[in-house]
Amino acid sequence: MMSSRVQARPVHRVRDVPCGGTAVEVRVRKRRLACLEPQCPRRSFVQTTDEIPLRSRLTSRLVAGMVADLSAELRAVSRVAAASGVSWTTVMRVMEDTAVVDGGVDRRLVRRLGVDEHRFRRVRYLKNDAGKVTRVEPWSIVFTDLDTGAILDIVDGRRGQAVRDWVGARPRWWRNRVELVAMDMSTEFRRAVRKVLPKAAITVDHWHVVARANQMVTEVRRRRAHDLHGRRGRATDSAWKYRKLLTCNQENLSGAQRGRMQEIIGADLELGVVWGIKEHVRQLLKTDHIDGFHRAWAELEHAVKATRMREAKSLFLTLKMWRKELLTFCRTRVTNARSEAANLSAKNLKRAARGYRNHDHYRLRLLGLYLLSTPC
């Protein structure tokens, strides 16, 4: 509709990109034109441009600059807001309006899915009306494409039901394309994945398996300190003094370190036994075919049965529960490393922002960092 009748010439104050580190405010005089059509419900309309959209207090280049600053590096939203001369809520509203927070997950061809959890914020203690104090641990679950390392989504929670709901919300063709799922040793996650992805194989991350074996060594070392000395370990005890060597890889030990290991084993043979069992676990994880896996498993089982230590039997019982997933790892060599890298990026983001309290803002910020980043 064309109109030549000017009803008013209002002046709008619009924020623009900073100049020389100083916030810039642009004053724009627009023409409000009267509509000559009697049936028009608006009666008047204001001229707009691509740089200054309708009812916008920000120029388009300022919006693009703020989004680029947030997606280019790990910067706090408050820093970007201060540099742009706007408020924190304005920057987050720009992110909500600009960022594609769904990431197009349903359109991605995901063959290998990574699932991992991390703590969203610190532990809180809440008191209800009855005076009962409840411990609240906010956690988040990160879903990652292991082929590309891209974060697919961040879900609030830590239970298997959250995994089941998110994966179950994907289209059937998407779920049928998933061939492998990598995770840590979480029985809830495994149960949920088997429920919604029955055709996908599950692999357990080998780092968590080795960490569980090292935990067994630490438990035995602490127990033996009380059995032999009736107290905790001290610097005068070789097992406590060189305790880090018990968790090191055998092939990485130097000559001097091997001598210290002999000193530890000579002082307590049980520590030598559990250290050998830990090395059997590592040898099991190094196999890459079925025959080698079964041979290494038989050697580990024989070593555990030869001892009466409850810590070793507890470790073997855990590995027995995850034997199928361990075999899948040895055959595919697929780890959850890219999910752990995504968790590291999330932690660095929280450090830069000094933490988050709202999970929706946290999810939006993290997805915006990955989805809006510009490749080199």
From TrEMBL:
InterPro entries the UniProt entry points to: Transpos_ISL3, Transposase_DDE
UniProt source species: Arthrobacter oryzae
Positions of the Transposase IS204/IS1001/IS1096/IS1165 DDE domain: 113-366
Highest rank taxon of the organism: Bacteria
Pfam families: DDE_Tnp_ISL3
Protein name, per record: ISL3 family transposase
Upper taxonomic lineage: Bacteria, Bacillati, Actinomycetota, Actinomycetes, Micrococcales
